[in-house]
Amino acid sequence: MLKKNRDLVILHILVFAVFTILLVKLYLLQIKAGDRYDLIATKNFVRIQKTLPLRGEIYDRNYRSIVLNKASIGLYLIPGKLKNKNDVIQMIETEFGVNKESINELLYRNRFNAYREIPIVNNVDYQKFAEISEHLDLYQGVFFKTEHTRQYMYDNHFTGYIRTINEEELIELESKSYTSDMKIGKMGIEKQYEEILQGKPGYRILQVNATGKSLELFRHNLDKPAEN
Fold first, then answer.
1. Closest by CA position to 118, among listed 74, 56, 71
2. Residue 194 β-bridge partners
3. CA 55 from centre of chain
4. For strand 118-121 and strand 162-164, is the pairing parallel, antiparallel, or unpaired?
5. β-pair partners for 206
6. 3-class DSSP state for residue 28?
């Protein structure tokens, strides 16, 4: 009987010791080292980056060009990387003539997509590009990007044109993978054959650090290319 009681006491001591060790480990991980692990978690995270297809060109029945894609330079910003928002908005308004209300509206529309690349100015003049690039490091979150603009070969009413999608159109087309930074056909052929000309967006899966730099760990097999 005495031996049985002694074994029970020893068992209770062992259980108590195990729980004590677990509690100490839990304390060290969550309290003492919590800040360190939070920092590691925020420095490395996964981001999905959308890739847009090149909009289809338009030819007549004799294969003569009607609408082509022309290489150009665009000004973009990423809301989540802005450090001096007011200075950035002031610079864009002063240098590119985009009013503050328009920029703030774009930021508001993308308030739930902090790391989306938002186009601000299309077809930037090369001289302006060279001039601004010299001090662009003062405006974190703003960058230039090579893109394509539509070149209409003939003045006519049936070709139509493209513009940035508005809120009503986005609600209607969101189920078809359209997003607020995309351009769609507004009139004529551009509108009538919108889905054919637009193609299907793809995506890249990136692991980035706290500065937004890609660590390139997922580059081999998880990307889905855009379909033109």
1. 74
2. none
3. 19
4. unpaired
5. 47
6. helix
Q: Which two tokens stand for residue 36?
A: 């360190």
Residue 121 identity (one-letter amino acid): V
> What length is written for the chain?
228
CB 24 within 8 A of CB 32: no
Q: Is 55 helix (H, G, I), strand (E, B) or coil?
A: coil
How far, in Å, CA of 105 to CA of 107, rounded? 5
Q: What is the DSSP letter of 57?
A: P
**3-class secondary-structure state, position 135:** coil
Look at residue 80 in the predicted model and tell me its pLDDT: 87
pTM over the 0.85 mark? no
Give the Cα-Cα-Cα angle 145, 146, 149 (nearest 5 degrees).
Answer: 120
| Average pLDDT score over the chain | 80
Q: If 0-12 CB within 10 Å is exposed, 13-18 middle and 19+ buried, where does residue 150 land?
A: buried
